[in-house]
């Protein structure tokens, strides 16, 4: 290949480096650079043609016939027009124009630009194969169009040097674009992974809140069902008791509806977690009020609180203990109506926190319709205890009572 000035190749979109992917539409920058390459090629064709027609040519010996000068100019124009299609068919155009490099001086600039495009956008082995073929045609060029100033081998060596420089430049541009593409893909992948982590965190938070609401709703609805059942089987109760039970039913229904609205809002929208602040979650300090609710519903509950340094109990451990007691009282109201319930909480730092709920095993069929349940309450409690690093036991013990007991770790600090 003969010497020529090669303009900087236009920057392509990342997908252009992969020949299997569809070509993107030509951008404004591509149009500008392609126009510049075309104009430079036209100027070179004009310069090479005028030089070949001069009595003392500079680049190569004068052609013996005028029609050869015109043919060389025509070949240069054809190769210049082909530059507009080099982005789509770089290999095809390189192979098609390669024979012209053996004798055409006017086509030198557009051929080198096509060759540069091939090096940038095709695999290295393909570029090296075309380079080897170009070096062969370069040897023929020095024979057909000998330089008027220097001898054959120096002229051939100059062609080899120029070809290798274009090869090195194209491989550098290709490596740089691949690096930029790799960094861009990494950044996009990191951003996608970050968005996925945020989405997963939100989903986990919604699931956690929904689980909390499930426990609260089960507790409140069991209270509501218990009072409604009392009114059903005691139609002759005093008016004060009826009014008090109706008030508890109304308050429980309103609270259950409020909790239901909150959980539906959490599960409906992505932004609900940040729009409304989450209500304070109960801890072990709220156990007396929880027991008071059950006593108001007619359940006999005995609370034994033997916790030392309760103010140092971690919030998460206290919340888990509260949910365990809540689930135990709810199960007692559902499956052992009328049975006395013993709730015991004890523990100290380093020794752990022990929570135990015990009630007599129900005898015979329950009076009236049983309170329906989801069957997942103990499963959720077991998951909570497991996440807290504790142990959970539930079932009928040797004395015949139903026992729900859990041990939760309580670090010293």
Oligomer: single chain
Adjacency order of strands in the biggest sheet: 1-2-3-5-4
End-to-end separation in angstroms reads: 79 Å
The shape, in one word, is: rod-shaped
How much of the polypeptide forms β-strand, as a percent range?
5-15%
- What is the chain-wise order of helices and strands? HHHHHHHHHEHEEHEE
Pfam families: HisKA_3 (PF07730)
Catalytic activity: ATP + protein L-histidine = ADP + protein N-phospho-L-histidine
Enzyme class: transferase
GO molecular function: ATP binding; phosphorelay sensor kinase activity; protein dimerization activity
Task: Set out the fold topology.
Blueprint: H1 28-53, H2 66-82, H3 90-97, H4 108-121, H5 124-144, H6 152-233, H7 239-268, H8 272-275, H9 287-296, E1 301-307, H10 315-335, E2 341-348, E3 352-360, H11 377-387, E4 391-396, E5 401-408
Helix pairs in contact: 1-2, 1-4, 2-4, 3-4, 4-6, 5-6, 6-7, 6-10, 9-10, 10-11
